[in-house]
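Many introductory courses stop at the sequence. We go one step further.
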Amino acid sequence: MNPSTHTDLPAENSSLFLARQVHALRKKAGLTLQQLSRKSDVSVSTLSKIEKGQLSPTYEKIVSLARGLDVPIAALFHEESAHTPNGRLAVTRAGSARTHSTKQYDYQALCADLSNKRFVPLLTRIKARSLREFPALLQHEGEEFIYVLAGQITVHTDFYQPIVLNCGDACYFDSTMGHACVAGEEEAQVLWVSSHSTQNT
């Protein structure tokens, strides 16, 4: 990729694009559905439905898939470049990022056309209003940074009392600690940046 250019996002539905990416990455890794199921703790039937575009995975399933495929989360939302040149640059214009929706969050991977990034920036709308909307706190390798752009959120973790963040507030934490975010009275928007300690993103 020429450093002065960026790759346009595919026009297809986000769920169908994700389905195609999961299938392609699984084949590239030489994994069967059964093998990926064991590595990701996602059932074979669920994996099959995701690859066929019949099921839109939750955020926790996406984290599990990335772990099972040994790729960063962002790899599920963009087509990987053939090589990683020096002097890379990516631009995401307002409103152009693909949105993936789960029950808890709507999120957009920013500058997703660059592969092998050291961190993954996500523009995220927090829809969940209660911790009961999560089957469990999320845990994965790496670290995370959250900056509240609008509204109010509460950050729940394994080891700390719930932390309320308002617009302009920020939080940084270890991703291996169970965590989840819920919105206040209205949906909130945050810049959510994650890094991975065991791999480039």
